[in-house]
Amino acid sequence: MWIALSGIAAPHSFTAAILVVGENVEQDLAEAVRGFVLAADERDGHPNETSDGHLGGVDVHVLPLPAEATRLVQELTGSPDEPADVVIVLGPKPAADDEASKYSRSSTVLVQALIAEGWNGDDRMDGFIARFRLAHGKEPGPLAASGYHAARRLDVAIRPLDGAEPRDELLKAWQASEFGLPR
């Protein structure tokens, strides 16, 4: 109520960087962003979006990283800010942890484990696979599934906070979603 009375608007958007590390960074980054954006478009959307979707009921602007690997990334409409509010790191350990440490001062860093082999045989992934195939005309790869899962986890973590702050609460909510998401 204080915010409404003071005339100060609470931020209703945030920037989520998707940082991919590994060998095929350009291709993997494009796949991860496709999966992430698919999840960000599932709930709370509206016509004439100026962001890349919604997570937790809040506009999300996607910032693909590393910047030199964005050639294959398409379909983004948002205007992300740097530094990002949240950096989601996807890739094999220990490289993912090493890259994550570079962003921890300016952003909330969330490391997403890559989806385990055999993920596409899991019945719980059928809806995602069908939506991805419809949106992109091909089967999703493990980086698309990992990006999708990261966005779903972020949606669950941000929803009760109505944004990417406070940092400690966001980290707790992210960690709580590690072993399962509500249906």
Write up what this structure looks like:
There is one protein chain. Helices cover 36% and strands 15% of the residues. The chain has helices spanning 2-6, 25-40, 95-101, 126-136, 142-158, 167-176, and strands at residues 13-20, 54-55, 58-65, 86-90, 108-112. Strand 4, helix 3 and strand 5 (108-112) form a beta-alpha-beta unit. Helix 2 packs across helix 5 (142-158) and helix 5 packs across helix 6 (167-176). It is globular. The model is unreliable at 1-10 (pLDDT under 50).
Short description:
A five-stranded mixed beta sheet has the order 2-3-1-4-5, with helices on both faces.
Task: Give structural attributes.
alpha/beta, 5-stranded mixed sheet, disordered N terminus, 183 residues
Count of strand segments:
5
Give the termini separation: 32 Å
Low-confidence stretches: 1-10
User: Structural class given helices, strands, pairing?
Assistant: alpha/beta
Number of helices: 6
Shape: globular
| Order of adjacent strands in the largest pleated sheet | 2-3-1-4-5
Q: Give helix % range.
A: 25-40%
Topology, please?
Layout: H1 2-6, E1 13-20, H2 25-40, E2 54-55, E3 58-65, E4 86-90, H3 95-101, E5 108-112, H4 126-136, H5 142-158, H6 167-176
Parallel strand pairs: 1-3, 1-4, 4-5
Antiparallel strand pairs: 2-3
Helix pairs in contact: 2-5, 5-6
